[in-house]
Design brief:
20 strands, Nucleotidyltransferase, domain 5, globular, alpha+beta, 6-stranded mixed sheet, 17 helices, 4-stranded mixed sheet, 2 domains
Length: about 425
């Protein structure tokens, strides 16, 4: 039984096929499309949605050429959304969370009340949060909108024509009441957004329509939730995870949300899990720093960059990857060199090593905060996603964190996506 997992990352669209009948299901990438947000004529930074949707269908068509599909599932990054008109069509390309329009987010947070916002949503306060994006969304477009969908469900809508909310992608917005899992009409009204724009929130596994006769199921629409769903069964409570990519999501799985003062002060998120529970985590800017540098350098192979960086001695400079100076950097290499105090004579290998050391150090800091908030030890880290392919990065994370490191699936997100589809199809014992 074959299923297709559509996995949108911030730099690439992937369509993978997973054979659920295999002794060890492994995602086979049948289509990949590299992309980036586009600067529009009005200066806004948006996603080229028409192209992304077309590439998705192109990948799904390729998947169908290889044989019948039992199901399709879609995951993307969180926080971004699209507005639909009364005709069901997208009013304009979705904004990227990296657009500078949320620069004044802290004033919005103060107006709403930081403590109240956290206790209501349980979500880490960050400029990218949907609540802050919607607070500054053009009012005329909001008034013309008939519906709002988060990006995973926006793509499901493109494929099927149906409109859904899904619990994991909804939970990234900071607009869901963590007490009952529904959209917070009170918060939405306070930022001037009609709560009626939002669809009901469904669980992962819900049938959502069909594309070319193939059933489409909601999966964990937020890519991190899908990645964590691919963890090896039986992970102890003391085992943390690091979902690696443009962002590193560092946290643990918990049965209940934690909106205590300690959790709020440490600014941890309580994001809904794929099949229940919560992912208690914090965002760390990850390999996006490297991706920006690679773009400046003409896209040299990552393996070559890591090999050169690994030849350098330990103890080099580190920076805070979450520093705002990197969020808006036009010249990432120069910004990193300046922040790290790297001389002009230092090669690209020193820049790459600085990025890797910095991301590993930031991951370690989050684990220390986790230990403090939880009052419990963290004895293991599961590295999920593409970062696990790098022995150097895995070594640096282990060294910085001082705990055992296990490497999970490189295509963890696509695999987790497929495993949720398997449950929806009634397939048991898929691992």
């Amino acid at each position: 039984m074959r299923v297709a997992a559509v996995d949108f990352g911030a730099t690439s669209v992937r369509v993978a096929v997973v054979d659920l009948d295999a002794a060890e299901p492994v995602p086979e990438i049948v289509h990949r499309y590299l992309h980036a947000p586009v600067r529009f004529a009005d200066g806004s930074l948006r996603w080229d949605w028409d192209r992304l949707a077309a590439e998705t269908e192109r990948g799904l068509a390729t998947a169908l050429e290889g044989g019948p599909l039992a199901s399709i599932g879609v995951d993307t990054w969180g926080v971004d959304y699209g507005l639909l008109g009364s005709d069901g069509k997208l009013l304009s390309p979705p904004f990227s969370y990296r657009d500078g329009r949320t620069a004044g987010w802290q004033a919005v947070a103060d107006t709403l009340g930081r403590d109240r916002l956290y206790r209501t949503s349980g979500i880490q306060l960050m400029a990218v949060n949907t609540v802050f994006q919607l607070a500054v969304h053009p009012r005329d477009e909001l008034e013309r909108a008939a519906g709002l969908l988060m990006l995973p469900e926006l793509l499901v809508h493109h494929l099927t024509g149906s409109a859904w909310g899904e619990v994991t992608s909804a939970s990234t917005t900071a607009l869901v009441d963590i007490a009952d899992g529904s959209w917070s009409a009170e918060l939405l009204s306070e930022i001037g957004v009609d709560p009626g724009l939002f669809p009901p929130i469904a669980r992962a596994g819900t049938p959502a329509g069909a594309w070319r006769g193939v059933p489409v199921h909601l999966v964990a629409g937020h890519d991190t939730a899908s990645a964590v769903a691919a963890r090896a069964p039986g992970a102890p409570a003391s085992a943390a995870f690091v979902a690696t990519g443009s962002w590193f999501l560092v946290g643990v799985e918990r049965d209940a949300a934690d909106v205590s003062d300690a959790a709020r002060r440490a600014n941890f998120s309580n994001e809904a899990g794929a099949l229940g529970g919560f992912r208690f985590l914090k965002n760390v800017t990850g390999l996006w720093l490297l991706e920006q540098c690679r773009a400046q350098w003409g896209a040299p192979r990552v393996e070559e960059l890591f090999r050169a960086a690994g030849a350098l001695a330990a103890g080099g400079p580190v920076v805070d990857p979450n520093d705002q100076r990197f969020a808006d950097a036009v010249d990432m290499e120069s910004e990193l060199r300046a922040a790290a105090g790297l001389r002009a004579s230092a090669g690209r290998d020193a820049v790459v090593r600085c990025i890797l050391d910095s991301v590993a150090a930031a991951t370690s800091r989050v684990l220390d905060e986790l230990r403090t908030v939880l009052g419990e030890p963290v004895t293991r880290v599961d590295v999920l996603g593409g970062g696990g392919r790098s022995e150097l990065l895995v070594h640096l994370i282990g060294e910085a964190c001082g705990v055992e490191v296990l490497v999970g699936p490189a295509e963890a997100t696509a695999l987790g996506n497929a495993l949720v589809q398997a449950r929806a199809l009634g397939v048991a014992d898929v691992r």
